[in-house]
């Protein structure tokens, strides 16, 4: 007998439907050859810190940190965590019983076709199976009966997916190490539950940085040169690259006069016929970006719809990061094309490297429709919108009709001062653009020829610098897919001999770093959406009208982590992402990747010890810092400051951070005891300059600066 373990009920039903003639007996579907049963997604989770302690107190304590297990333990998920009944325990006991049946000689992993699905079923089998049996893998890029039938006939050895499983285990262990250790550490320090994770923090940090840029942005007025005059009855707009500050209007006027006293001549006109290629097939992130732009659809919403369409057999596996198809899928694609052709679409099979490329695929091919095409009336409006975007892109890619355009480039020279280039396309034959959006921003150009004189009248145009825009679903997705685009651009713009500063360090081998940055992402197509949803649910960020904003709790998270020296930025996250890929490619072991994570975590705790040793530490939430100089009661560490325990009546406090400098508990104690500190360095003025000063208390017990024996009236 062959036991097939599906990751979830919907997959189980699809497999049972394809096999046919199966009876439901004692919780599983059976016939004379197969037994099909389903899990409920994850049945096992990594054990908590307390599970590694001999006498756990039940409280989060610094004495338990950091926790680096020699061997990670798993435990059955508590039913109360997911279900109100005992479904998880019942499901595992059923699978355990089936795994150990004497007539079962083969066990098939039918988890989702990704690293998560791979280890979900592996963990269940490893905890259930008592004796050695043959282990196979069923890989389902879609849930159509054709694919399921093919997989049933060609079951693969599970060993083929060992590297994928190793990457999955490594990611699970690393995320546990960061999440458990740093979440508890930051929470104990701040007194507020702060969820720290390998990917969630840099995502929140990106939104925090963008909102801070917008908040601190000061618009600046400047002048540009613009000409809008008609030539041969058509208006031609020319915008100069010259810029002048708001105090240089006269200079701008002089420049306009120089331009206008010269002739503007068309010195070059290039026209050629060309073919425009459609966009590539969609990865999940690219699809979510498009849906966010077109329909203001959140990543969580779009993923849930794509997942439903996949489970209904209409789309292929959604959590893919590839825009290419595997070469072994050519026959399947031919079948889909044949079905679409019957609907009247001009499609044909194309065997191109730009479509089929195994080297561009890690686990899954690009998102495509399946041969099973839904009726519009069977889908909701949003489901139809999502399906059509994927369907139309597929039709465009395999369209037999080409999009032909006339590409034109006109060069206009104004005297000896400046050269202007106008570019545009004229669509001659729409081809695939009838089915998928043509996104070119090129304009239709005026009818000009080489040697033509162009009428000009340059005038100053007052302009204003604009702040960066808030992240949207589209722009946040694009950033997470390519977080180092800015760095790569800056490297490319370097002059010969110049060095590049990366994360505070000067880099000489910029070519090596450009290569490193290529392909680095924050999170994966499979993980970004749930992580962003978690950040929203944790009230770190908000999403409203397709605009992401930082929330006060998110600001507090980022500020606290910076204060504690917890470096969880895009650089660190991508370093760990590289380590996971090295595990997948068998370049390093799981233990090697764990050691990388542990070394980074230890830096945080070593800094804490060093701060304590040098009396730089701010202490832990609720610590008694000393005696209130105003009322004589205890001063305790709060969220943002050291506060009198009777703050409502007394209102005495000392901020943790004053002018960019963190005030340690020993310095705060000295201020309260002696009403004055020693001279302290590292303060930063509003102008960005550092300065030294003592802190003292004024008659109202407010903290003020003391410069060389003189009080500052700048109160803190």
Characterization of this structure:
With 716 residues, this protein is of the alpha+beta class. Among the domains are: 119 residues, 3-Layer(aba) Sandwich (Rossmann fold); 120 residues, Topoisomerase I, domain 3 (Distorted Sandwich); 114 residues, Topoisomerase I, domain 4; 92 residues, no CATH class. 37% of the residues lie in helices and 22% in strands. It is built from 21 helices and 30 strands. Strands 2-3-4-1-7-8-9 form a 7-stranded mixed β-sheet. It has a 4-stranded antiparallel β-sheet with strand order 14-13-12-15, with no helix packed on it. Strands 21-22-23-24 form a 4-stranded antiparallel β-sheet, covered by helices on one side. A hairpin with a 6-residue loop joins β21 and β22. It is flat. The N and C termini lie far apart (76 Å). About 3% of the residues have low confidence.
């Amino acid at each position: 007998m062959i036991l097939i373990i599906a990751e979830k009920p919907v997959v189980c039903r699809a497999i049972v439907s394809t096999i046919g003639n199966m009876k439901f007996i004692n919780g599983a579907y059976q016939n004379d050859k197969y037994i099909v049963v389903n899990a409920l997604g994850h049945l096992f989770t990594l054990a908590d810190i307390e599970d590694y302690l001999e006498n756990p107190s039940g409280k989060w304590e610094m004495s338990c940190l950091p926790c680096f297990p020699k061997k990670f333990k798993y435990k059955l998920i508590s039913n109360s965590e997911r279900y109100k009944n005992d479904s998880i325990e019942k499901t595992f006991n059923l699978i355990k019983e089936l795994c150990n049946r004497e007539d079962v000689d083969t066990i098939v992993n039918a988890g989702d076709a990704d690293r998560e699905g791979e280890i979900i079923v592996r963990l269940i089998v490893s905890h259930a199976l008592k004796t050695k049996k043959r282990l196979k893998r069923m890989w389902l890029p879609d849930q159509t009966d054709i694919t399921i039938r093919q997989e049933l006939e060609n079951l693969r050895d599970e060993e083929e997916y060992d590297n994928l499983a190793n990457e999955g285990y490594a990611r699970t262990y690393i995320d546990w190490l960061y999440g458990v250790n740093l979440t508890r550490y930051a929470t104990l320090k701040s007194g507020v539950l702060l969820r720290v994770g390998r990917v969630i923090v840099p995502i929140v940090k990106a939104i925090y940085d963008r909102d801070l840029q917008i908040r601190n942005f000061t618009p600046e007025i400047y002048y540009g040169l613009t000409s809008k005059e008609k030539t041969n009855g058509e208006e031609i707009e020319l915008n100069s690259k010259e810029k002048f500050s708001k105090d240089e209007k006269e200079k701008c006027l002089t420049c306009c006069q120089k331009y206008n006293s010269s002739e503007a001549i068309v010195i070059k006109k290039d026209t050629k016929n060309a073919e425009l290629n459609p966009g590539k097939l969609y990865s999940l992130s690219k699809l979510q970006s498009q849906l966010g732009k077109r329909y203001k659809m959140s990543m969580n919403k779009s993923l849930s719809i794509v997942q439903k369409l996949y489970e209904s057999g209409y789309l292929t596996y959604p959590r893919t990061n590839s825009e290419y198809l595997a070469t072994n899928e050519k026959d399947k694609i031919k079948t889909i094309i044949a079905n679409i052709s019957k609907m009247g679409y001009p499609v044909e099979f194309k065997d191109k490297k730009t479509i089929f490329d195994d080297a561009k695929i890690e686990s899954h091919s690009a998102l495509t429709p399946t041969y099973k095409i839904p009726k519009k009336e069977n889908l909701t409006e949003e489901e139809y919108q999502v399906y059509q975007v994927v369907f139309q892109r597929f039709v465009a890619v395999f369209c037999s009709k080409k999009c032909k355009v006339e590409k034109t480039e006109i060069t206009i020279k104004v005297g000896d001062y400046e050269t202007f280039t106008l570019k545009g396309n004229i669509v001659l034959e729409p081809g695939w653009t009838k089915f998928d959006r043509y996104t070119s921003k090129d304009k239709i150009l005026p009818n000009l020829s080489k040697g033509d004189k162009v009428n000009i009248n340059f005038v100053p145009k007052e302009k204003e610098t604009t702040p960066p825009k808030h992240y949207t679903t589209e722009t946040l997705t694009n950033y997470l897919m390519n977080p180092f685009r800015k760095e790569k651009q800056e490297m490319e713009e370097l002059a010969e001999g110049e060095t590049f500063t990366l994360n505070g360090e000067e880099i000489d081998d910029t070519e090596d770093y450009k290569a490193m940055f290529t392909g680095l992402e924050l999170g994966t197509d499979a993980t970004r959406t749930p992580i962003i949803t978690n950040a929203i649910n944790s009230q770190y960020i908000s999403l409203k009208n397709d605009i992401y904003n930082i929330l006060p709790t998110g600001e507090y998270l980022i500020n606290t982590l910076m204060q504690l020296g917890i470096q969880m930025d895009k650089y660190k996250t991508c370093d760990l992402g590289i380590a996971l890929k090295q595990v997948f490619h068998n370049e390093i072991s799981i233990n090697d990747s764990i050691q990388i994570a542990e070394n980074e975590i230890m830096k945080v705790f070593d800094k804490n010890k060093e701060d304590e040793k040098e009396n730089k530490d701010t202490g832990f939430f609720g610590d008694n810092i000393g005696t209130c100089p105003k009322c004589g009661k205890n001063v305790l560490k709060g969220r943002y400051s050291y506060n009198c325990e009777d703050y409502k009546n007394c209102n005495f406090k000392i901020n943790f951070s004053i002018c960019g400098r963190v005030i340690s508990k020993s310095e705060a104690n000295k201020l309260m005891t002696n009403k004055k500190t020693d001279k302290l360095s590292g303060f930063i003025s509003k102008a960005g300059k550092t300065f030294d000063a003592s802190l003292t208390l004024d008659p109202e017990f407010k903290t003020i600066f003391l410069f060389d024996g003189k009080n500052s009236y700048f109160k803190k």
